Amino acid sequence: MLFKDLGLNDSLLAAIAKMGYVEPTPIQEQAIPVALRGKDVVGCAQTGTGKTVAFVLPILQLMSKKKGVKALVVTPTRELCGQIEEVGRGCAAGTAIAVQAVYGGVPYEPQAKAMRRGVDLLVATPGRLLDMMRQGDIKLDGVEIFVLDEADRMLDMGFWPDVQRIVKSLPTKRQNLLFSATMSRAVLDVIGDTLDHPVQIEIGLRATPVDEVDQQIFPVDGGQKTELLVSFLKHHNPERTLVFTRTKHRADRLARTLEKKGIKGAAIHSNRTQSQRQAALDGFKSGRYRVLIATDIVARGIDVEGITHVINFDIPTNAEDYVHRIGRTARAGMKGTAVSFLTAEDVHELKDIERLIGSTLDRHELPHFDYIARNIPHSDDLKKRPGKLLYNGGARRAAARGFVRTRKK
Question: Which of 41, 43, 121, 293 sits CB 3.0–4.6 Å from 99 for a disulfide?
């Protein structure tokens, strides 16, 4: 099937052809015709499968010609905001449709001026959107189409009260498009009452990494992880590598260490200003930095072509975050490698990941690396953990780590 078979108008077909799109991806092929019929859509597809285009194109075709914001996309991170704005403007080329993103971390007034000039498609993070609504710089009473992007991440990041305030300010009669790489029951339970008989579209197995990712586990003592990272980068010399850490402090420390070792890298996390984050991302895209070290808070906002390797310096405590992390590579049909450093403290998290993706990951060793003694059990040999807390959508075994006490009968 070609884009011209989906019911899109000539101006949109010309725009996407200029952007280099040839054939629609499965999520685009299934979601675009349904959305063009005015139906509510719940779309679930793996990272890197073209969900943004799947909702931007119908929006641009369906919105009316009246003044004011007619379509609203709410997304959790600044980076995603900027990328959706970029795709929206590319698809709207040749039309009079104005696309604008508003998000925190940058000066308020330029965004307010843009809104006063007139915006048709608005892309926003919850916090800045609510600020501008309170100041009277944004009115949503004319919204015809509402898109919630990365809905599960919104819930994990604690944005749901803000999302509910935004939804209450929208016209009752509207079209709703809900898109995400994973769609948890918790999200559907919370958002379900705002949807009108939605068409559910799920591409591939839920929360399953793309087939083109070669997933590898490197067991290592916790004290040797930094040394192993440096050795891995020098041994394999990957062209473009995204490294994930659990904390902002560790991301900064790794960036400094790599610089001392002659490996150009930059850190990106929520404590960085928007200009610092953009500079790091631009440097990574241009090749100035071979390595970008990130935390999960920005994981879904990083959409860079040609990422050859994703390295989980710290294995995530939430198994679904693993899927989103490794989805940064092997995009658009390319191959990619995902490497996870496994310590004795991470074995239960690894088992959760393997259970989620439905396969056991192979263990590897870096040639000529001087490993110290390791005692890291295999997933199959693990005993059941004594207890767990559900937190941020993932499992944390609290009793095992002393967060809670086991109550006696």
Answer: 121
Contact 294, 244 (CB under 8 A): yes
Least confident of 269-273, 305-309, 341-345: 269-273
Judge whether residue 341 has pLDDT over 60. yes
Distance CA 29, CA 33 (A): 7
May I ask the CATH architecture of the domain 3-202? Answer: 3-Layer(aba) Sandwich (3.40)
Q: Which pTM was predicted?
A: 0.66
Residue 150 has a pLDDT of: 86
Q: Which residues pair with 121 in a beta bridge?
A: 71, 99
CATH 2.10.70.10 fits 213-398, yes or no: no
**Distance between CA atoms of residues 132 and 100, nearest Å:** 13
For the chain, the structural domain boundaries read: 3-202, 213-398
Task: For residue 336, list its beta bridge partners.
Answer: 213
- The rounded distance, in Å, linking the Cα atoms of 27 and 14 is 20
CA 87 remoteness from chain centre:
16
How many angstroms separate the CA atoms of 348 and 116, rounded? Answer: 52
Q: Categorize the per-residue pLDDT at 306 as very low, low, confident or very high, splitting at 50, 70 and 90.
A: confident
Q: What angle do CA 8, 13, 17 make, to 5 degrees?
A: 150
